[in-house]
């Protein structure tokens, strides 16, 4: 079990001394505040806290490795950290294991010893034009999760932008929630427990896109129409339903993703082929 790796093989003592708990809590709070300005600096603090047995630090460090924030993207290390935290009862870590779709036992060197984590080169984190800092962060999560599910990241991002403008707290009059605007039925269908949790919501929306892409053989227009109006409506009308909202929605998506057929750029295909089939 991965929790044993942390507690024995790595000699990571749990926080049993009440006197140490406030210090760890302060370190975690400092790291969380640092994430948006200096993700690598936050990773350094999370590494130190994880070595001392902090389950929350394991989860947060896993998130940085999963999405390449501050440290180079490494799904194996992220999966290992999520597995350990999940085994110790961390609910969000368990949800991320479902999202990351990979089993591994590879720990970051900064967990094994008192060294600093590898730093992500400045040029390795491209900015996305016309998006503010919060939207760019959500956009990178959308793109990464899409890649893990064999969906063109640009297509998933186009849907997310039209749906919510990448707002994790978005709520429509029809009770559609979060970045991918999941209605309660769709959230339940794709095992999303908290629709306002960005990674869970995006995972559910991307899984729905993957299902629709398979159903309509990659036809982008039909997939977009189904995402908005539901596949039953698309099947009933044998195409885009004559609803003004849906027709406008499809036009907006096609403006951002002007391809009739879903396609993966060779760069994304090469990265996707590196993912083991589970």
Summarize this structure briefly.
The protein has 278 residues and is mainly α. The protein has 15 helices and no strands. Helix 1 packs across helix 5.
Structure characterization notes:
Helix 1 crosses helix 5 and helix 12 (220-229) packs across helix 13. Helices cover 59% and strands 0% of the residues. With 278 residues, the chain is mainly α. It has two domains: 2-122, Serine Threonine Protein Phosphatase 5, Tetratricopeptide repeat (Alpha Horseshoe); 133-273, Lysozyme, CATH 1.10.530. The chain has 15 helices and no strands. InterPro entries: Lysozyme-like_dom_sf (IPR023346), Sel1-like (IPR006597), TPR-like_helical_dom_sf (IPR011990), Transglyc_AS (IPR000189), Transglycosylase_SLT_dom_1 (IPR008258). This is Sel1 repeat-containing protein. Keywords: Lyase.
């Amino acid at each position: 079990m991965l929790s044993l790796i942390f507690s024995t093989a790595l000699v990571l003592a749990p926080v049993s001394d009440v006197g140490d708990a406030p210090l760890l809590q302060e370190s975690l709070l400092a790291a969380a505040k640092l994430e948006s300005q200096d993700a690598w600096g936050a990773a350094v603090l999370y590494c130190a806290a994880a070595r001392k047995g902090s389950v929350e630090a394991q989860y947060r460090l896993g998130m940085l490795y999963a999405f390449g924030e501050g440290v180079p993207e490494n799904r194996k290390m992220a999966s290992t950290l999520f597995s350990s935290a999940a085994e110790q009862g961390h609910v969000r870590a368990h949800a991320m294991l479902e999202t990351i779709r990979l089993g591994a036992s590879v720990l970051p060197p900064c967990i094994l010893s008192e060294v600093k984590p590898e730093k992500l080169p400045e040029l390795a984190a491209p900015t996305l034009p016309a998006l503010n800092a919060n939207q760019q962060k959500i956009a990178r999560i959308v793109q990464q999760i899409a890649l893990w599910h064999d969906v063109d990241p640009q297509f998933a991002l186009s849907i997310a932008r039209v749906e919510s403008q990448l707002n994790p707290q978005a709520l429509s009059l029809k009770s559609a929630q979060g970045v991918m605007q999941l209605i309660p039925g769709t959230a339940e269908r794709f095992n999303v427990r908290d629709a306002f949790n960005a990674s869970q919501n995006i995972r559910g929306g991307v899984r729905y896109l993957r299902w629709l892409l398979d159903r309509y053989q990659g036809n982008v227009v039909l997939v977009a129409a189904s995402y908005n109006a539901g596949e039953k409506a698309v099947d009933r009308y044998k195409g885009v339903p004559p609803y003004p909202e849906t027709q406008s929605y499809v036009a907006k998506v096609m403006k951002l993703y002007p391809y009739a057929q879903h396609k993966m750029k060779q760069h994304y295909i090469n990265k996707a082929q590196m993912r083991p089939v589970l």
